Amino acid sequence: MNILNYIKGLIRNSKAVIAKMAAMCAYPMIENKILFIFLYLLGIINMLIEVYVLHYRIPKISFFTYVLDAYLICLMISFVPKRLKNVFQILTYSISVMLAVINIFCVNKFHAKIGPEILNVVLETNKRESSEFADKYINAELITSPLSILLVYLILFGMLALYAHSHFKLSKNRLISYILSSLFVVCVVVALPSRITMIKLLKAENIEELDHYINNHSLNTPYNNLAFAIKVRVLSNKDLDVLAKNQNKFTVDSCNHSSNNIIFIIGESYIKCHSQLYGYKYETTPYQKKRMNDGEIVVFTDVITPANLTSVVFKHTFSLHSIDMKDSWSSYPLFPVLYRKANYHVAFITNQFVKSIQQDAFNVTGGLFLNENRLSAMQFDTRNIISHQYDEELLRDYDSLQQYNTANNLIIFHLSGQHIDFYKRSPEAFKKFAVSDYSVRKDLSDQEKQIVADYDNATLYNDFVLEKIIERFENEDAIVIYMPDHGEECYDELHRMGRLPSGNFSPEVLRQEYRIPFWIWMSKKYRENHHTICKQVENAKNKPFMTDDISHMFLYLAGIKCKYYNDSKNVLSDSFDVNRKRLVEGIADFDKISEHKQ
Ligand SMILES: [Zn+2]
User: How far from 242 is each of 73, 249, 328, 331, 531, CA to CA, in Å?
Assistant: First the structure.
């Protein structure tokens, strides 16, 4: 009997404990019920407007994360002393509405959410510019913009809240506590991983780590975006300030301008095995293939990239720093800076890192050292000002900037290439490949075959763009170097597409994402005038090379002498270190790992 009573007592007690916990859990929501509902609906409306304007799929997880966000804010307010509670509630209403207004305005006008670029513009805009901005954008048109949806929401919610306040009372009964606390638990389970990611982001110590968090729409709430923007600004300011100050100190001893026109084309997401130059059976690169057969293009066979993320590749491509060096890249010269100091005219014609607030999210961290005012001025004499849907249009930019060319030029083209989404990278006229071309691929669904077709069409279009660039320099004394930033996956070795966050170093991932095509084209005139370099290029084509050291080759091609140049890192030199351990991301031994299971 005693035991039975004991158990009954235990059940009673635990029921009481659970009820108490549920009441505690529900307390912040009940105590700040109107604010809680307001924040949740505001978040959802904001997200739906973004989805509508920016055309992305509704991140379903957001329906849970917004509950968690609203809950956490209400929880914080619950701890505020009673007399200050109203002040904090009003502050929360004002800040959240302000953020939503700014975010929706930016999404609608610039197709960009609150982010580092928007924050930079706001912080760097002077009084005159802000009044011009106000004249241009704040007008009657706003009434018909998505902002009016927000206005309707605010009015309706205000009216309903007032009505509910005087007519209903949410009593603290057990059932309500149970319902609300269960809702809370479900949301914690679903949304917590995404919020842990956010916390990691805010603890990041260097800018590269931030790249992994962008393009994640479920993470991109206005509060998170603002926090992200501030974080990027703080970290990059620190880094870029040191980098810029150091660039002033670097000097060039002499320069004999060995090559008059050096053209560096940086592509995007190029899978080596999708190029005919490396045996692909689909005709994706007819122009390059012809030039290779005619002996004009020297195709390198063993080149890899140090990273699979554009921004990291750019840093190491432009800097004389190598990825496996322990010290910071900010204390090394950027090769375009040295080119300018050696009296080369440097042009940067990019379809991604244009200096504007309309940058895509994937550019945000990558574009910083190219777009920071001081560093841009130190590296480039001329650059284009808008990005385009298709890469071919960059040639029009080049044509209009060509008048600024001098006797010695470094022209850097930076393409969108085969960047995801593949189908967006080629115009209609280049949609040659279709599902039916891949009937041998029994392992793929029709939808997947279409993705491969889209990728190959993008590669075919890329071939055309590269041809057009070469044509521009056909009659000049010119050398063209082509290198994509990194590879990609498109159902080749693994049944997947895209790229994995760095840190995944399986043999398949290394082969697909880090191995890249690479070639050098030299004009007829160039071949006649530069016998030694020609021979050196031919001799270099089978050397194992990682592109983080490409800057040394560029110094050599221009004949720039300076103490930062290292002959053993110049792939064209006889002293080039063919035994260098190629550590991708500075840690994984490419040659050791990638050999497995070929
Ligand atoms: Zn890239």
Answer: 37, 11, 10, 7, 40
267 CA from centroid of ligand 1 (Å): 8
Any alpha helices (H) in 474-564, and if so which ranges?
A: 507-509, 524-529, 531-540, 550-558
Return the pLDDT at 462. 98
**Alpha helix (H) residue ranges in 295-416:** 310-318, 335-341, 368-371, 373-379, 393-401
Residue 459 CA to ligand 1 centre (angstroms): 14
The CA 135 to ligand 1 mean position distance, Å, reads: 37
Taking only the tens place, the pLDDT of each residue in 332-364 is 999 999 999 999 999 999 998 887 654 444 444
**One-letter amino acid of 123:** L
Please say whether the beta carbons of 425 and 416 come within 8 A: yes
- Please give the pLDDT value at position 219: 67
Quote the CA–CA distance of 345 and 409 in Å, as a whole number: 5
Nearest to 456 by CA among 276, 300, 587: 276
Extract the runs of DSSP E, i.e. beta strands, from 363-467.
Answer: 382-383, 409-414
Spatial neighbors of 10 by CB under 8 A, at least 6 apart, are: none
| Pairwise CA distance, residues 179 & 183, whole Å | 6
- Centroid of ligand 1 to alpha carbon of 419 (angstroms): 7
CB 115 within 8 A of CB 229: yes
Phi-psi region of 537 (alpha: psi -120 to 50; beta: other; left: phi over 0): alpha
How far, in Å, CA of 55 to CA of 48, rounded?
A: 10
Confidence (pTM): 0.72
Per-residue pLDDT at 511 = 95
Say how far apart CA 334 and CA 96 lie, in whole Å.
42
Using an 8 Å Cβ cutoff, are 546 and 314 in contact? no
Question: What contacts 50, CB < 8 A, 6 or more positions away?
Answer: 56, 103, 107, 113, 217, 220
CA of 518 to the centre of ligand 1 (A): 15
The pLDDT, as a whole number, for residue 197 is: 81
* Residue 543 DSSP symbol: S
**Structural domains of the chain, with CATH:** 2-233 (no CATH), 255-594 (3.40.720.10)
What is the DSSP code (8-state) at residue 334? B
Three-state DSSP class for 234? helix
- What lies within 8 Å, CB to CB, of 492 at 6+ separation is 271, 273, 274, 512
